[in-house]
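Issue 218. Parser rejects a valid record. Input:
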Amino acid sequence: MAGSILTVGRDPVRLAYDAIAGTYDAQVARSSWVRARLWQRLDALFPPGARVLDATAGTGADALHLAARGVAVTACDLSPAMLERLAARAPSITTRVADCARLAAAFPAAARFDGVLSTFAGLNTVTDLGGFAAGAAGLLEPGGVLFVHLLNRLPLAALARRFRSGGWQAGAAGVAAAWRGCRVVTIGGVPVPHRLHSPRRLYREVFARDFELLGVSGQGVLRPVDDPAEPAAGPGSERRRGRDRWEERLGAWPSSRGLGTFFALEMRRRPMETARR
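Output the parser choked on:
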């Protein structure tokens, strides 16, 4: 394994994810259908041979998937324990303990990638995403792709499900978090604030200066994101396929794609001479 360790901040986030490194894969397994959707886009964006930086790699689900397709992946994360699990599974993947909010400090000035990605709410733990955006822009070749996947501020379907399953108290707590734009999630016994964003506003305020928006998609508009994988055949299979077709459509339509539990932005690095000033 090629790797290095930097002095990083955001200690509560690091401690939280160090604490759950051993169980993280099992915890996110119920959301495997969301990751499968993301991989469809990552496969289309990053062909074999592309140089890609996973800025919040965790235990490496995305990095392992891309590397198996011949993509040259560098995996970063704030949590050494999470990256240790990735390194044990794939020693050939380059790892680097680093804060995604300070990417510029984590790599030499000459480092360049064809793509940068962050999935499954890693960026929601960052207080100010301006540092991440600037760092990604500096590391990407002109025309390189930035793919980010975050928790949505106004997930209407998920809020409705909270009212139905948890009652008014749970539903009201979800609405209050959306109003504040912040939700505290306890991870490994550590309270971790998650800043919540809306896709178009996030693009305009953080990424538009250096990136052209290629696409927006939503996940969990209709189907709960923690809905486990289900058999393709058997009782209810036709109903599930119909629901999944509607989930895909609603996640792509402009009027509904910003209403899911998650959203993804696909962006292209502007040529430096045309980047907005």
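Fixed in the parser; the record now loads. The chain has ten helices and ten strands.
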